UniProtKB/TrEMBL annotation:
GO terms for molecular function: xanthoxin dehydrogenase (NAD+) activity. It comes from the Eukaryota. Belongs to the short-chain dehydrogenases/reductases (SDR) family. InterPro entries: NAD(P)-bd_dom_sf (IPR036291), SDR_fam (IPR002347). GO terms for biological process: abscisic acid biosynthetic process. This is Uncharacterized protein. It comes from Escallonia herrerae. Gene3D superfamilies: NAD(P)-binding Rossmann-like Domain. GO terms for cellular component: cytosol.
Amino acid sequence: MVIRLEGKVALITGAARGLGESIARLFAKHGARVVIADILDDLGKSVCEDMGLEVASFIHCDVSVESNIENAVNATVDKYGKLDVMVNNAGILDQPKSSIIDNDASDFERVIKVNVAGTSL
């Protein structure tokens, strides 16, 4: 197997489960050190422990809060001395409603803030 990411450092948002977790595991398999950034603290820490703390670390990060993203980037650079790859993977779904009338602007804004603005902050 070709080790494509040897010596690289990746920060991956939404990596405590699902697609983000799979990305983190694949990056580590290819030689990268990964920082799992997520709001699911227990799951994120568990994934890191399972992957091995020598290749994975966790930081709490809500991508809808710009200072959380800044903190995650700074913590990654402080720990590893650099940041080579950032995967903006975090995303959420709104709770299903039985009627369109039950939707309100704050729910919509929360989804947009994470899924659209969170990838560009």
